[in-house]
């Protein structure tokens, strides 16, 4: 195993050795005040680490069921997720449903009825197509309302 790791590192090193790449990060603006040649001015704004916009849409707080308040409290008790958690309300198959976005990657988003019972997981998972119990959700959902979005 150790020999394999060494061989892989050696191969990587030799494959990349012919390229000479120099990366620098500016910390001060150029002396002349203008950019020319290879000079790059220092950044003028704060770095952005959160790809989600700072705009938080107004949430519909009317008549949040107790089970939904508990789900929101559970999300807030955890560390901030990226992407942030959003809960939306839709009409689907003639009923009001709540959609909770997936915490990340191959995890499932969830759709609940008004009592908090899980109906389906319309997207996510390895295939990205959810659990298959509501394959038409994306096409047939309507009347989107943001119920809650993690404000952190």
TrEMBL record:
The keyword Metal-binding does not apply. Coiled coil: none annotated. Residues 39-50 have a biased composition (Polar residues). It holds the Pfam family DUF6970. Residues 23-38 have a biased composition (Low complexity). Keywords: Signal. This is DUF6970 domain-containing protein. The lineage of its organism: Bacteria, Pseudomonadati, Bacteroidota, Cytophagia, Cytophagales. Residues 23-60, 124-152 are annotated as: Disordered. InterPro entries: DUF6970. Residues 130-144 have a biased composition (Basic and acidic residues). Residues 1-19 form the signal peptide. Transmembrane segments: none annotated. PROSITE patterns: PROKAR_LIPOPROTEIN. Residues 75-150 form the DUF6970 domain.
